[in-house]
Amino acid sequence: MDQFSGISSVAMHATGHKNADDAHLTPIYATSTFTFDTAQQGMERFAGSDKTRIYSRWGNPSFTAAEETIAALEAFGLKDESGSPLKLKALLHSSGQAAMTTLFLANLKAGDTVLSHFSLYGGTHELLHRVMDATGVKTTIIDMRDLNLVADAISKDSSIRMIHIETPANPTIQCVDIEAVTKLAKEKGLIVSVDNTFASPYLQQPFKYGVDFVFHSTTKFLNGHGTAIGGVLIGKDLEKMQTSVWKWHVLLGGNSNAFDAFLLSLGMKTLELRMERHCANAMEVARFLEQHAAIAKVNYTGLTSHPDHALAAKQMRHPGAVMSYELKGGLEAGKKFIDKLQMCVRAISLGTVDTLVSHPASMSHFGIAREERIKYGITDGLIRMSVGIENLPDILNDLEQALKD
Ligand SMILES: *Cc1c(COP(=O)(O)O)cnc(C)c1O
Q1: One GO molecular-function annotation for this sequence (predicted)?
Q2: Is the pLDDT of residue 283 over 60?
Q3: Which residues line ligand 1 (CB under 6 A)?
Q4: How many angstroms does the Cα of residue 42 sit away from the middle of ligand 1?
């Protein structure tokens, strides 16, 4: 079937169920290399006229199954410029960081600049400021919620080659207008990439607005169960994805492995079901916290109090499952709250079926100077929460008891 009515069917059937042994699910092809019957066959495979596999760093059927599913999810319901169903190509990587490295190295060279927003994921921020900087690629960080600043930056700085958008983003769940920023970028012929990790393709499809690349840390909602680190880079220029981007990917060596790819394929089958429940629970948790006496502030775009409430409603199906909130009692209250949790899990990361709670000031950002982290909105009493799909009353009861003096 070419067309499905929703993404659950896409997630389960986009790749079909054909393989050499009629296995229902794509097997875990735990093999580094593939055999040739003859020298002639080897030659044809290297020439590309025979598409059979050669070596797993260059591709493996277990990776392909996950890649084709992700490409189909991001393209679901979208059309290309000529009005035909949009076709995308995805490349699975060993981590989000590896996929991001391919994205930047395959598209930028010394002298180019990347324009981005200040609430970037920490790993992306460091990758740009350490690794890319060392290759001669500069980064300019602005507040991309102000479209005048975006227009100003790209008209004044002709070295800007790429705009990298992450929306929604840590820690205050700020959103950037993908459609408006892409429109400005395309007037100048710039490359646009979007980190869609927090939303997942079920909640947000950046290719709808004409972006060039979408990135996910598959570690989060796509896998959904916290079983494997992984990343994916998806592009709409199929020729470029199959040649230059693929070449960088293969040379950098950040390939996935068959077992992680299998876990990802398995997790994605329930993406729609999980996201519906994640988001329904998150909305109720946000409402509960907003009226709680111990809470100073809740950052969740589902609440009308969030500055990006309208923007999130425009470009996302639901406001997502990640939020942060501020305890009135500061650092000590934050630590005490975290320690008292009985069911919610104390851990960084996000997007797993169970609720994860972290306290950036004492955990992920402990090593960063206080003034520095406060500039990025990471205040002493800030709690980051990825709301899971447990039964809602149990999440609320756990929060209630942990917030009691
Ligand atoms: C986790 C994450 C990454 C990095 O991905 P890894 O899988 O940890 O390498 C990048 N961007 C966002 C938004 C993330 O949450």
Answers
A1: pyridoxal phosphate binding
A2: yes
A3: 95-97, 121, 123-124, 166, 195, 197-198, 217, 219-220, 229, 231
A4: 38
Q: Cα(96) to centroid of ligand 1, in Å? A: 5
Identity at 41, one-letter amino acid code: Q
- Across the range 62-70, mean pLDDT stands at 97
The pLDDT tens digits for 207-260 are 999 999 999 999 999 999 999 999 999 999 999 999 999 999 999 999 999 999
- The closest-lying atom of ligand 1 relative to the alpha carbon of residue 219 is 7
The pLDDT of residue 292 is 97
Rounded alpha-carbon distances, angstroms, from residue 163 to 48, 121, 248: 34, 15, 20
User: Distance from the CA of 225 to the center of ligand 1, in angstroms?
Assistant: 15
Q: Is the pTM for the entire model greater than 0.85?
A: yes
For domain 7-268, give the fold: Aspartate Aminotransferase; domain 2 (3.40.640)
- CATH of the structural domain 271-403, one choice from 3.40.190.10, 3.90.1150.10, 3.10.25.10, 3.30.540.10: 3.90.1150.10
Q: Where are the domains of the chain?
A: 7-268, 271-403
- State the closest ligand 1 atom to the C-alpha of 231, by its place in the atom list counted from 1: 7
